[in-house]
Amino acid sequence: MAGGMILMGVFIFVLSVPAAMVLHGIAQAFSNGSRVWLYRKHIKWRVLGHYAVGALLVLAAFATLAFVPDIGLVFILIGSFPFLAMMLPKSIDLDMERVPVAFGSGIAVTTAQMLAGASGPVLDLFYVQSKMSKEAILGTKAVTQTFGHILKLLYYAAIMTVGSSELPIWVSRRWWQPRSSVTLSGV
Questions:
Q1: What is the per-residue DSSP string for the chain?
Q2: Model pLDDT for residues 56-101, shown as the tens digit of each residue
Q3: pLDDT in tens, 30-52
Q4: Does 141 reside within a domain?
Q5: Residue 170 placed within a domain
Q6: Are the C-beta atoms of residues 61 and 68 closer than 8 Å to each other?
Q7: Is residue 115 in some structural domain?
Q8: 167 touches 29 (CB < 8 A)
Q9: Domain limits at 18?
């Protein structure tokens, strides 16, 4: 389950934050999307509506601020997320099937995805105390992750479109166009 965090760490090491977020969003949307398909019969759709409202609020906040985290913050968050579960008191009832918890999960998990790119350990906190079956947890988590990665992809793609693109030439859409030749006039 830590593959997304490792992948994000590799991408952020070699790419700018927006480029890493876009590339990670594409890879993880497909990865989690395949799990959605595999567990489609077990997904708890009633949970996802409240999750989506929280997630869309975070997207709106980020779009308003046009915030891009510093690379150091991304690495710190990726490294700290696995320890988050150990810091929370056991008395907190984070059952994803409860409406306020699903809404709060949408806010927390999407914020984590927008800031660190990966949010698996944060999302897990909301399913540990759930009464859902293993298959329902896997399917429902896959939907939330796919949705979050698509939101992240759209946000950072928009950031890159507005700002200067820092994608490497092999990802850029203009790699195939010939470069204009430089001519010296008056020589």
A1: --HHHHHHHHHHHHS-HHHHHHHHHHHHHHHHHHHHHHTGGG--HHHHHHHHHHHHHHHHHHHHHT----HHHHHHHHHHHHHHHHHS-TT----TTSHHHHHHHHHHHHHHHHHHS--HHHHHTTTTT--S-HHHHHHHHHHHHHHHHHHHHHHHHHHHHHS-----TTTSTTTTSPPPPP--TT-
A2: 999 999 999 888 999 999 999 998 988 877 787 777 888 899 999 9
A3: 999 999 999 999 999 998 999 99
A4: yes
A5: no
A6: no
A7: yes
A8: no
A9: 14-162
Measured in residues, the chain has a length of: 187
Q: How many domains is the chain partitioned into structurally?
A: 1
- How far from 37 is each of 2, 32, 43, 55, CA to CA, in Å? 20, 9, 10, 21
Asked if residue 182 belongs to a domain, the reply is: no
